[in-house]
Amino acid sequence: QIKACLFDLDGVLVDTAKYHFIAWRELAEQLGFVFTEQDNERLKGVSRAASLDILLEIGGLTFSEEDKMRFAEQKNNRYVEYISKMDSSEILPGALSFLQECREAGIKVALGSASKNAMAILNNTGLTPYFDAIIDGTHTSAAKPDPEVFLLGAQAVGIAPEHCVVFEDAEAGILAATRAGMRSIGIGSPETLSEADFVVPSLAQVSVSKLGEWFAA
Ligand code: B16
Ligand code: MG
């Protein structure tokens, strides 16, 4: 039986991937190469530092740690500019009503995001009050597919991993859920999220009664 829902942020509750993409593309342009939307897929769910390493690999460039820190900071400043303008209209379809439904059903709700900007995004979109616990990139030491972020979330809401379900749009996040001993629902396409227990296009296809059907045991 499901007693807690753990949500990834980017790609599940809000579409911040587009802002990450614009900010990374600007950096690539400045460094003299083209960064495509397809390249951007590789950065989903990946930490900021690891994202920069992938970007530089695509550009075939090597830099000192000092330069890399500067680039990461520059990208983040641009990203923060975009997310500072976000509001509730950028919450993805089905997210708000499902969060509400979870609360009414007494199911615990936690965030498990790699982002260090998660608090600003939740506050600007008005999502903060829906969460019993918020675990983000400022609380973790290991990135997905390490299960740390979800294990901390489960611990914070006091629910055992076998009663938790994770909602994720990234393959690394689904792996993290499995390694945490939790169920998982992929948000996106079944091809990229083949390890998930179930895959749906968005949270609009999810409800508390569906959870009961899917995870009856
Ligand atoms: P920041 P999630 C992840 O968020 C994004 O998917 C990923 O593209 C990003 O690099 C990462 O957060 C770090 O974000 O630079 O804001 O710390 O999907 O785990 O909610
Ligand atoms: Mg994500």
From TrEMBL:
Record Pfam families: Hydrolase (PF00702)
GO molecular function, one term: beta-phosphoglucomutase activity
Necessary cofactors: Mg(2+)
Site (Important for catalytic activity and assists the phosphoryl transfer reaction to Asp8 by balancing charge and orienting the reacting groups): S113, K144
GO biological process assignments: carbohydrate metabolic process
CDD domains, A to Z: HAD_BPGM
UniProt: Mg(2+) binding residues: D8, D10, E168, D169
Residues that, per the record, bind substrate: 8-10, 24, 43-48, 51, 75, 113-117, 144
Active site: D8, D10
The keyword Magnesium appears for this protein: yes
Cofactor binding description: Binds 2 magnesium ions per subunit.
Domain of life: Bacteria
Record keywords, A-Z: Magnesium, Metal-binding
InterPro entries linked: B-phosphoglucomutase_hydrolase, Beta-PGM, HAD-like_sf, HAD-like_SPP, HAD-SF_hydro_IA, HAD_sf, PGP-like_dom2
PANTHER family: FRUCTOSE-1-PHOSPHATE PHOSPHATASE, GLYCEROL-1-PHOSPHATE PHOSPHOHYDROLASE 1-RELATED
Family: Belongs to the HAD-like hydrolase superfamily. CbbY/CbbZ/Gph/YieH family.
Protein name per Swiss-Prot or TrEMBL: Beta-phosphoglucomutase
